[in-house]
Design goal:
Length: about 325
């Protein structure tokens, strides 16, 4: 009997700041939930982090990358079914980026909403920031990835990766798999607890203590940020009309517990928002406690993490080399 090969998934997280609940619910938790049904590659994208130089000090980047890898394992990534590696350890990412640069029209990159928002108000903008989505396309296409599990904010970048793959295949013959995004129903766009009309973000969280819950926050801090979260003064739990802060809390609860939004909304009808906040605070604290515990243990016994990273890197390098051989042949280099 022949078994059908598993769908291959690739995703990544930048080591630019402390990981928050949005990273966890939008990406890492869904990776863990689906990992046994897929072949997985999870990457700490340190080359992407170089596009925000002020967020990084060179002596810190290596440590941050290892910490993010430890957080993947702590959250439940199982190295027996998932490869876990650091982007810069596989040189083919940069080589493929150059080749893809040469087939990507500039206008496609200038239209990216993240490029527009990240470059806004800056005196100078590094070319790397503009090129960021091509490096991301290279990450995905290098491994013939079929699905890319991410939060909603990455959807446009994955559409670009698809367009680049189609264009390359058209110009040079079938070379790349055209990937699909996979975005969770709840948790795809966790909003800031102190300002629920903006996406929870690592950079905002650096200057505003109750914007985000971080994966390594103490339980009291998690409770405080959620109890202080901004809602209105009413008691509306209808997802179509409730205030953004209430909708955000319901989505967080749904993503953590698996309970559907209609059921949460029904349970709370007629009750004050304080009860919802209380339940969300308890659910998030309980969800993160074992992750935090494992994270601390992994950093204490670093040998295991290094061993997982080395084994995964060796495995994914073989895949990357095979793709690059195909690509070099297709374009006539090497
Ligand atoms: P990054 O590091 O910004 O975010 C990592 C993952 O977390 C998700 N995310 C969120 N999900 C829900 N609510 C939020 N508030 C929230 N904030 C972040 C992101 O959607 C992402 O899935 N460009 C990527 C990294 C990357 C990548 C890749 C991803 C590089 N190459 C290839 C997939 C495939 C990024 O900046 O993620």
């Amino acid at each position: 009997m022949t078994s059908t090969p598993l769908v291959r998934a690739f995703s990544g997280v930048q080591p630019t700041g402390r990981l928050h609940l949005g990273n966890y619910l939008g990406a890492i938790k869904p990776w863990v939930e689906h990992q046994h049904a897929r072949e997985n590659l999870f990457c700490v994208v340190d080359l992407h982090a170089l596009t925000v130089p002020e967020a990084i000090k060179s002596d810190e980047l290596k440590a941050r990358s290892r910490n993010v890898a430890a957080a993947f394992l702590a959250a439940g990534i199982d190295p027996s079914v998932s490869s876990l590696f650091i982007q810069s350890h596989v040189r083919e990412h940069t080589e493929l980026t150059w080749v893809l640069n040469c087939v990507t029209p500039l206008g496609w990159l200038e239209r990216m909403t993240q490029f527009k928002s990240k470059s806004e108000g800056r005196e100078t903008v590094g070319t790397g920031l503009l090129d960021y989505p091509v490096l991301m396309a290279a990450d995905i296409l290098l491994y013939d990835s079929q699905v890319v599990p991410v939060g909603e904010d990455q959807k446009q970048h994955i559409e670009l990766a698809r367009d680049v793959a189609v264009r390359f295949n058209h110009m040079f013959g079938e070379t790349f798999v055209v990937p699909q995004p996979s975005i969770p129903l709840s948790g795809a766009r966790v909003m800031g607890f102190d300002e629920p009309t903006v996406k929870m973000s690592k950079s905002i969280a650096e200057s505003r203590p109750h914007h985000a819950v971080h994966l390594d926050d103490a339980p009291e801090k998690i409770r405080k940020s959620i109890m202080k979260s901004v809602t209105d003064a009413g008691c509306d739990y209808d997802p179509a009309t409730a205030s953004p802060g209430v909708v955000n809390l319901m989505h967080v609860l749904s993503a953590v517990s698996g309970e559907g939004i209609p059921s949460i909304s029904n349970r709370y009808t007629g009750k004050g928002y304080g009860y919802l906040k209380q339940e969300v605070a308890e659910a998030v604290t309980a969800e993160l406690a074992p992750v935090q515990d494992k994270y601390r243990r992994l950093l204490d016994e670093a040998g295991y993490l290094d061993q997982v990273l080395a084994q995964s890197t060796a495995k994914v390098r073989t895949l990357a080399e095979a793709t690059m051989t195909r690509v070099r042949h297709a374009v006539g280099i090497g």
